[in-house]
Amino acid sequence: MLFSSKIKLSVCVALIVSVLFSVISFAKTSEEIRNDVLRLHVIANSDSAIDQNLKLRVRDALLQSGNEIFDGTTNVENAIKRITPQIPVLEEIARNIIKESGFDYDVRITVSKEYFTTRTYEDITLPAGKYRALRVIIGSGKGHNWWCVMFPAMCLPAAESRQEIDDVLNSRETKLVEKNPKLEPRFKIIEIIEQLKKDKN
């Protein structure tokens, strides 16, 4: 009986250690992904249909420009170095779209670190946490936002081609972002951990 209890305890300990190792490995790969991508975060002036449509027009113009700026870029550090001095140009592009649409909203663009919850875009899921992002605020910035990955170019509705994620991400990172969050509970665990870290800061 005592021997049987020891076996059960050993199995439980082994299971706990296995789960912890799995979560730690998942968290490490999640951190690598956060360090390897540049997200685009466009915030509309308001939630009116007109302002939300304007947000998408600005998005398309910036994605097209980003595709040209990043041409040949193979890592996120290089991408940020290329796009940072182009921010005034991108702001002007956005202002022209806004003006052509009949508005006089200002636009502010920065590269900053922002917290994102677990997000899925088509067949790609990004784990929760802080990412570097090109943040675009249109007018008062009180409307719903739109996000995606600007580098590597995972979503380019206005571009001619889509950059393959495995051109930038390693095999572990690619496998993780292609997982289904509904079938992968570790996404939720990472989100809870990252939310606790965010609240602590």
What's the helix and strand layout?
Layout lengths: L1 H35 L1 E6 L5 H21 L6 H8 L3 H14 L6 E10 L2 E3 L2 E3 L2 E10 L6 E7 L19 H7 L8 H15 L1
Parallel strand pairs: 1-5
Antiparallel strand pairs: 1-6, 2-5, 3-4
Helix pairs in contact: 2-4
How would you explain this protein's 3D organization?
A hairpin with a 2-residue loop joins strand 3 (119-121) and strand 4. The chain contains six helices and six strands; from the N terminus they run H-E-H-H-H-E-E-E-E-E-H-H. The protein is 50% helix and 19% strand. The model is unreliable at 157-162 (pLDDT under 50). The chain has 201 residues and is an alpha+beta fold. It has helices at residues 2-36, 49-69, 76-83, 87-100, 171-177, 186-200; strands spanning 38-43, 107-116, 119-121, 124-126, 129-138, 145-151. Helix 2 packs antiparallel against helix 4 (87-100). The strands form two sheets. A four-stranded mixed sheet has the order 2-5-1-6. Strands 3-4 form a two-stranded antiparallel ribbon. The protein has one domain (35-200).
